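Protein modeling request. Please complete all fields; requests missing the sequence field cannot be processed.
Requester role: graduate student
Desired output: 3D structure, C-alpha coordinate encoding
Chains: 1
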Amino acid sequence: MDVGGVGTHLSLLDRMLSRAEYPHIMCYGRKPVDILKSAVLCNSARWLFPQLHVPIRQESFVQGMIRVLVKAIRGTSCKPDLVHCHDTFSTLAAKYVREAEGLDIQIVQTTHAPLLDEYLINHPDNHYLHDMAMSWDFHGYNASSRVIAVDTLQKELVRRIHDRVPVTVIPNAVDLAELADIRTKCIKTPERPYICVARHLSRKNGIPVAVEAYRRCKSAERYQLVVVGDGQDRPIVEKLIVEHKLEKKVLLMGKRSRNETLQMIANASVSLIPSIPIHNYVEATSLTMLESLGLGCPIVASSIGGLQEVLEGTEAGLLVPPNEPQALADAIDGVLSDGQLRERMRNRGMELAREYDTNAWFLRHREIYESL
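Delivered output (372 residues):
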Protein backbone atom coordinates (compact mmCIF):
# COMPACT_ATOMS: atom_id res chain seq x y z
CA MET A 1 0.00 0.00 0.00
CA ASP A 2 1.27 3.49 -0.85
CA VAL A 3 0.15 7.00 -0.03
CA GLY A 4 3.55 8.66 -0.27
CA GLY A 5 6.60 9.15 -2.45
CA VAL A 6 7.75 5.56 -2.65
CA GLY A 7 6.38 4.76 -6.09
CA THR A 8 9.70 3.56 -7.53
CA HIS A 9 10.23 1.21 -4.59
CA LEU A 10 6.72 -0.23 -4.94
CA SER A 11 6.92 -0.53 -8.72
CA LEU A 12 10.08 -2.60 -8.32
CA LEU A 13 8.49 -4.79 -5.66
CA ASP A 14 5.42 -5.30 -7.85
CA ARG A 15 7.61 -6.34 -10.77
CA MET A 16 9.60 -8.82 -8.68
CA LEU A 17 6.46 -10.34 -7.13
CA SER A 18 5.03 -10.83 -10.60
CA ARG A 19 8.20 -12.49 -11.87
CA ALA A 20 8.12 -14.87 -8.90
CA GLU A 21 4.41 -15.56 -9.64
CA TYR A 22 3.41 -14.43 -6.17
CA PRO A 23 -0.33 -13.72 -6.13
CA HIS A 24 -0.68 -10.14 -4.92
CA ILE A 25 -2.68 -6.94 -5.24
CA MET A 26 -1.06 -3.50 -5.32
CA CYS A 27 -3.06 -0.70 -3.67
CA TYR A 28 -1.74 2.64 -4.89
CA GLY A 29 -3.08 5.65 -3.03
CA ARG A 30 -6.72 6.63 -2.69
CA LYS A 31 -9.68 6.88 -5.06
CA PRO A 32 -10.21 10.28 -6.79
CA VAL A 33 -13.43 10.85 -4.81
CA ASP A 34 -11.50 10.40 -1.55
CA ILE A 35 -8.82 12.84 -2.70
CA LEU A 36 -11.53 15.42 -3.53
CA LYS A 37 -13.28 14.91 -0.18
CA SER A 38 -9.94 15.22 1.61
CA ALA A 39 -9.14 18.49 -0.19
CA VAL A 40 -12.52 20.03 0.70
CA LEU A 41 -12.34 18.84 4.32
CA CYS A 42 -8.76 19.99 4.84
CA ASN A 43 -9.25 23.43 3.28
CA SER A 44 -12.29 23.96 5.50
CA ALA A 45 -10.38 22.77 8.57
CA ARG A 46 -7.46 25.06 7.73
CA TRP A 47 -9.74 28.08 8.23
CA LEU A 48 -12.00 26.80 11.00
CA PHE A 49 -9.54 24.76 13.10
CA PRO A 50 -5.95 25.80 12.22
CA GLN A 51 -4.45 23.66 14.98
CA LEU A 52 -6.28 20.55 13.81
CA HIS A 53 -6.23 20.76 10.03
CA VAL A 54 -3.17 18.48 9.69
CA PRO A 55 -4.59 15.70 11.92
CA ILE A 56 -7.93 15.99 10.06
CA ARG A 57 -6.11 15.66 6.74
CA GLN A 58 -4.20 12.61 7.93
CA GLU A 59 -7.38 11.02 9.27
CA SER A 60 -8.95 11.50 5.83
CA PHE A 61 -5.91 9.77 4.29
CA VAL A 62 -6.40 6.77 6.55
CA GLN A 63 -10.13 6.59 5.82
CA GLY A 64 -9.43 6.71 2.08
CA MET A 65 -6.87 3.92 2.37
CA ILE A 66 -9.32 1.84 4.42
CA ARG A 67 -11.86 2.02 1.60
CA VAL A 68 -9.23 1.07 -1.00
CA LEU A 69 -8.04 -1.89 1.05
CA VAL A 70 -11.55 -3.15 1.90
CA LYS A 71 -12.51 -3.03 -1.78
CA ALA A 72 -9.35 -4.94 -2.76
CA ILE A 73 -9.91 -7.64 -0.12
CA ARG A 74 -13.60 -8.07 -0.84
CA GLY A 75 -12.93 -8.19 -4.56
CA THR A 76 -10.84 -11.37 -4.38
CA SER A 77 -11.97 -14.88 -3.51
CA CYS A 78 -8.68 -15.61 -1.72
CA LYS A 79 -8.21 -13.61 1.47
CA PRO A 80 -4.70 -12.22 1.99
CA ASP A 81 -2.27 -13.64 4.51
CA LEU A 82 -0.17 -10.50 4.66
CA VAL A 83 -0.35 -6.76 3.98
CA HIS A 84 2.92 -4.96 3.25
CA CYS A 85 2.65 -1.22 3.94
CA HIS A 86 5.10 1.56 3.13
CA ASP A 87 4.08 4.35 5.47
CA THR A 88 2.44 4.83 8.84
CA PHE A 89 -1.04 5.70 7.55
CA SER A 90 -1.24 2.65 5.32
CA THR A 91 -0.25 0.54 8.32
CA LEU A 92 -2.94 2.10 10.52
CA ALA A 93 -5.50 1.51 7.76
CA ALA A 94 -4.43 -2.16 7.50
CA LYS A 95 -4.70 -2.52 11.29
CA TYR A 96 -8.27 -1.15 11.24
CA VAL A 97 -9.34 -3.39 8.35
CA ARG A 98 -7.81 -6.46 10.01
CA GLU A 99 -9.85 -5.83 13.13
CA ALA A 100 -13.07 -4.70 11.40
CA GLU A 101 -13.12 -7.58 8.91
CA GLY A 102 -11.97 -10.17 11.45
CA LEU A 103 -9.02 -11.21 9.28
CA ASP A 104 -6.02 -13.25 10.38
CA ILE A 105 -3.37 -11.30 8.48
CA GLN A 106 0.18 -10.23 9.25
CA ILE A 107 1.29 -6.64 8.66
CA VAL A 108 4.79 -5.74 7.47
CA GLN A 109 5.78 -2.08 7.35
CA THR A 110 8.72 -0.69 5.38
CA THR A 111 9.89 2.57 6.93
CA HIS A 112 11.76 5.08 4.81
CA ALA A 113 11.59 7.61 7.67
CA PRO A 114 9.29 7.94 10.68
CA LEU A 115 6.28 10.20 10.28
CA LEU A 116 7.65 12.17 13.23
CA ASP A 117 10.62 13.28 11.12
CA GLU A 118 8.34 14.64 8.41
CA TYR A 119 6.46 16.69 10.98
CA LEU A 120 9.65 17.97 12.58
CA ILE A 121 10.70 19.26 9.15
CA ASN A 122 7.36 20.70 7.97
CA HIS A 123 5.94 21.82 11.34
CA PRO A 124 9.03 22.47 13.51
CA ASP A 125 7.22 24.50 16.20
CA ASN A 126 4.03 22.46 16.51
CA HIS A 127 4.76 20.18 19.46
CA TYR A 128 1.16 18.99 19.52
CA LEU A 129 1.68 17.50 16.04
CA HIS A 130 5.02 16.01 17.06
CA ASP A 131 3.36 14.12 19.92
CA MET A 132 0.56 13.00 17.64
CA ALA A 133 3.01 11.82 14.94
CA MET A 134 5.00 9.84 17.48
CA SER A 135 1.79 8.21 18.68
CA TRP A 136 0.81 7.30 15.11
CA ASP A 137 4.29 5.89 14.47
CA PHE A 138 4.15 3.85 17.69
CA HIS A 139 0.75 2.33 16.91
CA GLY A 140 1.83 1.59 13.34
CA TYR A 141 4.93 -0.26 14.52
CA ASN A 142 2.93 -1.96 17.28
CA ALA A 143 0.49 -3.33 14.69
CA SER A 144 3.32 -4.75 12.57
CA SER A 145 4.70 -8.27 12.80
CA ARG A 146 7.92 -7.00 11.22
CA VAL A 147 9.35 -3.62 10.30
CA ILE A 148 11.78 -3.28 7.39
CA ALA A 149 14.15 -0.30 7.66
CA VAL A 150 15.99 0.92 4.58
CA ASP A 151 19.22 1.57 6.51
CA THR A 152 20.66 1.23 10.00
CA LEU A 153 19.76 4.81 10.96
CA GLN A 154 16.09 4.16 10.19
CA LYS A 155 16.30 1.05 12.39
CA GLU A 156 17.65 3.20 15.24
CA LEU A 157 14.83 5.72 14.75
CA VAL A 158 12.23 2.93 14.91
CA ARG A 159 13.84 1.66 18.11
CA ARG A 160 13.55 5.11 19.72
CA ILE A 161 9.78 4.98 19.20
CA HIS A 162 9.10 1.24 19.71
CA ASP A 163 11.78 -0.97 21.23
CA ARG A 164 10.06 -4.36 20.87
CA VAL A 165 8.96 -4.74 17.26
CA PRO A 166 11.37 -6.90 15.17
CA VAL A 167 13.28 -4.70 12.70
CA THR A 168 15.23 -5.95 9.68
CA VAL A 169 17.46 -3.68 7.59
CA ILE A 170 17.01 -4.14 3.85
CA PRO A 171 18.60 -1.28 1.86
CA ASN A 172 16.91 0.00 -1.26
CA ALA A 173 17.81 -1.69 -4.53
CA VAL A 174 17.93 -1.02 -8.26
CA ASP A 175 17.25 -3.13 -11.33
CA LEU A 176 20.71 -3.47 -12.86
CA ALA A 177 19.31 -4.89 -16.11
CA GLU A 178 17.19 -1.74 -16.55
CA LEU A 179 20.20 0.50 -15.87
CA ALA A 180 22.42 -1.51 -18.23
CA ASP A 181 19.78 -1.02 -20.95
CA ILE A 182 19.84 2.74 -20.32
CA ARG A 183 23.64 2.77 -20.55
CA THR A 184 23.61 0.80 -23.80
CA LYS A 185 20.88 2.71 -25.60
CA CYS A 186 20.94 6.23 -24.23
CA ILE A 187 24.48 7.32 -23.37
CA LYS A 188 25.70 10.06 -25.69
CA THR A 189 28.02 13.02 -25.50
CA PRO A 190 25.92 16.10 -24.60
CA GLU A 191 26.37 19.36 -26.49
CA ARG A 192 27.52 20.92 -23.24
CA PRO A 193 28.82 18.73 -20.39
CA TYR A 194 26.87 19.05 -17.18
CA ILE A 195 26.59 18.23 -13.50
CA CYS A 196 23.25 16.60 -12.66
CA VAL A 197 21.16 17.00 -9.51
CA ALA A 198 18.19 14.63 -9.84
CA ARG A 199 16.29 15.44 -6.65
CA HIS A 200 12.93 16.70 -5.44
CA LEU A 201 13.24 20.41 -4.64
CA SER A 202 12.67 20.17 -0.91
CA ARG A 203 14.73 21.55 1.95
CA LYS A 204 16.25 18.20 3.00
CA ASN A 205 17.70 17.63 -0.48
CA GLY A 206 19.91 20.71 -0.33
CA ILE A 207 19.38 22.10 -3.86
CA PRO A 208 20.26 25.68 -2.80
CA VAL A 209 23.55 24.30 -1.44
CA ALA A 210 24.20 22.73 -4.84
CA VAL A 211 23.58 26.05 -6.62
CA GLU A 212 25.83 27.93 -4.20
CA ALA A 213 28.56 25.29 -4.61
CA TYR A 214 28.26 25.45 -8.40
CA ARG A 215 28.68 29.24 -8.28
CA ARG A 216 32.04 28.69 -6.57
CA CYS A 217 33.22 25.94 -8.95
CA LYS A 218 36.09 26.64 -11.30
CA SER A 219 34.42 24.07 -13.56
CA ALA A 220 31.34 26.29 -13.97
CA GLU A 221 32.91 27.95 -17.02
CA ARG A 222 32.73 24.68 -18.91
CA TYR A 223 30.05 22.62 -17.15
CA GLN A 224 26.37 23.42 -16.80
CA LEU A 225 24.32 22.56 -13.69
CA VAL A 226 21.13 20.65 -14.57
CA VAL A 227 18.46 20.14 -11.88
CA VAL A 228 15.90 17.42 -12.61
CA GLY A 229 12.93 17.60 -10.26
CA ASP A 230 10.41 19.99 -8.80
CA GLY A 231 9.00 20.88 -5.39
CA GLN A 232 8.17 23.56 -2.86
CA ASP A 233 11.73 24.96 -2.76
CA ARG A 234 11.71 25.91 -6.45
CA PRO A 235 11.06 29.65 -5.76
CA ILE A 236 14.05 29.69 -3.39
CA VAL A 237 16.26 28.05 -6.02
CA GLU A 238 15.03 30.38 -8.78
CA LYS A 239 15.74 33.43 -6.60
CA LEU A 240 19.26 32.19 -5.89
CA ILE A 241 19.91 31.64 -9.60
CA VAL A 242 18.81 35.20 -10.44
CA GLU A 243 20.77 36.73 -7.55
CA HIS A 244 23.99 35.12 -8.79
CA LYS A 245 23.23 35.74 -12.50
CA LEU A 246 23.32 32.03 -13.28
CA GLU A 247 20.30 31.94 -15.60
CA LYS A 248 22.40 30.77 -18.56
CA LYS A 249 24.33 28.21 -16.53
CA VAL A 250 21.75 26.51 -14.29
CA LEU A 251 18.92 24.66 -16.00
CA LEU A 252 15.80 23.75 -13.99
CA MET A 253 14.18 20.94 -15.98
CA GLY A 254 11.28 20.32 -13.61
CA LYS A 255 9.80 16.91 -12.98
CA ARG A 256 10.56 14.35 -15.69
CA SER A 257 9.64 10.73 -16.28
CA ARG A 258 11.75 8.07 -14.60
CA ASN A 259 13.28 7.06 -17.94
CA GLU A 260 14.19 10.66 -18.82
CA THR A 261 15.71 11.19 -15.38
CA LEU A 262 17.85 8.07 -15.68
CA GLN A 263 19.06 9.23 -19.10
CA MET A 264 20.01 12.61 -17.66
CA ILE A 265 22.05 10.93 -14.90
CA ALA A 266 23.67 8.50 -17.35
CA ASN A 267 24.94 11.33 -19.56
CA ALA A 268 26.12 13.58 -16.72
CA SER A 269 29.76 14.08 -15.79
CA VAL A 270 28.89 14.08 -12.07
CA SER A 271 25.78 13.14 -10.09
CA LEU A 272 25.38 15.51 -7.15
CA ILE A 273 23.50 14.47 -3.96
CA PRO A 274 23.86 17.43 -1.54
CA SER A 275 21.38 16.28 1.15
CA ILE A 276 21.34 18.06 4.49
CA PRO A 277 20.22 16.73 7.90
CA ILE A 278 17.14 18.39 9.39
CA HIS A 279 16.22 17.56 13.00
CA ASN A 280 16.22 13.74 13.14
CA TYR A 281 15.87 13.39 9.37
CA VAL A 282 18.99 12.16 7.60
CA GLU A 283 19.11 10.85 4.01
CA ALA A 284 18.50 7.11 3.84
CA THR A 285 19.78 4.74 1.12
CA SER A 286 19.08 7.13 -1.73
CA LEU A 287 17.74 5.59 -4.93
CA THR A 288 19.38 8.43 -6.89
CA MET A 289 22.71 7.33 -5.43
CA LEU A 290 22.15 3.66 -6.32
CA GLU A 291 20.95 4.54 -9.81
CA SER A 292 23.98 6.77 -10.35
CA LEU A 293 26.26 3.90 -9.29
CA GLY A 294 24.56 1.48 -11.66
CA LEU A 295 24.70 3.99 -14.52
CA GLY A 296 28.43 4.55 -14.00
CA CYS A 297 28.10 8.24 -13.10
CA PRO A 298 30.65 9.56 -10.57
CA ILE A 299 28.97 10.76 -7.37
CA VAL A 300 29.67 13.68 -5.05
CA ALA A 301 27.43 13.41 -1.98
CA SER A 302 26.95 14.56 1.60
CA SER A 303 28.61 12.39 4.23
CA ILE A 304 25.40 11.54 6.09
CA GLY A 305 23.06 8.60 6.64
CA GLY A 306 22.68 6.01 3.92
CA LEU A 307 24.92 7.98 1.56
CA GLN A 308 27.84 7.59 3.93
CA GLU A 309 26.88 4.01 4.81
CA VAL A 310 27.12 2.94 1.15
CA LEU A 311 29.94 5.14 -0.21
CA GLU A 312 32.41 5.47 2.67
CA GLY A 313 35.64 3.57 2.07
CA THR A 314 34.94 3.08 -1.65
CA GLU A 315 36.13 4.92 -4.75
CA ALA A 316 32.59 5.03 -6.09
CA GLY A 317 31.90 8.53 -4.77
CA LEU A 318 33.35 11.48 -2.90
CA LEU A 319 31.79 12.41 0.44
CA VAL A 320 31.79 15.96 1.79
CA PRO A 321 30.37 17.51 4.98
CA PRO A 322 26.70 18.50 4.50
CA ASN A 323 25.67 22.11 3.95
CA GLU A 324 29.21 23.26 3.12
CA PRO A 325 29.15 24.76 -0.41
CA GLN A 326 32.91 25.35 -0.64
CA ALA A 327 33.74 21.75 0.26
CA LEU A 328 31.18 20.61 -2.30
CA ALA A 329 32.63 22.91 -4.95
CA ASP A 330 36.18 21.66 -4.30
CA ALA A 331 35.06 18.04 -4.59
CA ILE A 332 33.23 18.71 -7.86
CA ASP A 333 36.27 20.47 -9.31
CA GLY A 334 38.48 17.62 -8.15
CA VAL A 335 36.39 15.02 -9.98
CA LEU A 336 35.92 17.06 -13.16
CA SER A 337 39.61 17.92 -13.44
CA ASP A 338 40.80 14.31 -13.23
CA GLY A 339 39.71 11.97 -16.03
CA GLN A 340 41.43 8.94 -14.50
CA LEU A 341 39.63 9.52 -11.20
CA ARG A 342 36.28 9.72 -12.99
CA GLU A 343 36.98 6.44 -14.78
CA ARG A 344 37.89 4.69 -11.51
CA MET A 345 34.73 6.08 -9.90
CA ARG A 346 32.59 4.84 -12.80
CA ASN A 347 34.04 1.32 -12.67
CA ARG A 348 33.93 1.06 -8.90
CA GLY A 349 30.40 2.43 -8.86
CA MET A 350 29.10 -0.23 -11.22
CA GLU A 351 30.85 -2.91 -9.15
CA LEU A 352 29.32 -1.55 -5.93
CA ALA A 353 25.86 -1.39 -7.49
CA ARG A 354 25.87 -5.19 -7.83
CA GLU A 355 25.56 -5.40 -4.04
CA TYR A 356 22.20 -3.61 -4.33
CA ASP A 357 20.64 -5.60 -7.16
CA THR A 358 16.95 -6.39 -7.00
CA ASN A 359 17.37 -10.18 -6.92
CA ALA A 360 19.06 -10.30 -3.51
CA TRP A 361 16.78 -7.51 -2.29
CA PHE A 362 13.64 -9.41 -3.24
CA LEU A 363 14.95 -12.66 -1.79
CA ARG A 364 15.23 -10.99 1.61
CA HIS A 365 11.66 -9.71 1.34
CA ARG A 366 10.47 -13.14 0.32
CA GLU A 367 12.19 -14.69 3.35
CA ILE A 368 10.32 -12.29 5.62
CA TYR A 369 6.98 -12.98 3.94
CA GLU A 370 7.42 -16.74 4.26
CA SER A 371 8.59 -16.56 7.89
CA LEU A 372 5.31 -15.01 9.07
